[in-house]
């Protein structure tokens, strides 16, 4: 290894082995630091995101229970399934957010349409016709469209950001397993020890800087091939983080979900009569129920008075049918609460601070792969920076002018390097799509892709950890066991229909109601007077006839 020197063959072999350990340790420790930067922050980001979702669900349940009372508890499966779908997308990517939003509002549309028109019977064909005209009717106003865009962009960017951090850490960790060749070990060992074996470093200043750098560039040149792909990946992460701190901020979208969905419900309540008339003209008028029952539990429906304090609801003057008028809930308080302004670092949320930290730390990894040779020479104290003009070991003799050994042609890229470079390029492409607001499919090899899902799936090791949120505790009362009581008004009369609550809302379903379960609760003033006075008049008239006879 060192040629004619005072070092024996055995000593040279020991030096070779020791140098091999040093080189491998340097590669492993340096790359592991980069991998840890991404992995630790990805875990922290995920932890805070999960906490935010949990808090949002809690606030959603509390507000809707306070606002809509029992009707929400009986229909809570619609909203719980909606949150489950959002969480499933974030974890696994097995759903399309656009389809999730369409399904959610489609189910909500069917249920509310049956509430408003509960005096009629609807079969599957009729409800299919109703759903077919939902886009034209726009019963919820522009809330589904705006909310759908915001949710899709924010969740896509958030999930892609998190998954890119996780997979970027995995790619770096796998690159640490890439071994340098035997020529590298021999050249770096000769650079490190042969000067001493030849007695050339006794008065010298160590290894020449150029000699060390050139030697290690030849050793680590294979890692330099990763640098362009890695730097592009870092730039893409940085751009998506800017979106998450700005227009795609997931907290601004998720936290006020209760306000936005409640606004959609109020929009439908306002336009319910007009929507029903248009549907009748397009789909025909459905048959009415007959033989109403005279007893039953108190009516509960979306048109019942919400209980939320300060929600923009007020009781109007008594109408002919003794109904309670409800004004749409504007939700200004909620919107004002979640309105974001230009924030300083101190005023940002915990999740935003994590994103800022990721943005800063990952920027520091640019040029990391190209700097491996320089860091190696500096970290191992092979150079003597105290005197640049002092004699140094250049590989052949002690000279103030270092020489550079001839390097061989670059070898073919190892398969492991090609695989991880390709993986980084794929992540960069997905990050760019997320930055542009496009839907991103990230297929995980550890998870089976669902047929017809149209998107990739998540990490397989997370499957067992996914637990759907617990449903709100419902009071065990007889009225809830009977089902939802829908209320509607026609010709001054109130007709109510009891319908069973479906157990799932994955697809739009028909909520059937039987004729025998009908009840009559409300009564207009005129009808009450008639019911009260007619028996008296008949009794008086009958008595008069008897006296005449």
TrEMBL record:
Pfam families: Glypican. It comes from Phaedon cochleariae (Mustard beetle). This is Glypican-6. Belongs to the glypican family. The keyword Electron transport does not apply. Residues 441-450 have a biased composition (Acidic residues). It is a lipid-anchor; GPI-anchor. GO terms for cellular component: cell surface; extracellular region; plasma membrane; side of membrane; synapse. The keyword Glycoprotein applies. Residues 393-405 have a biased composition (Polar residues). Cell surface proteoglycan. It is found in: Cell membrane.
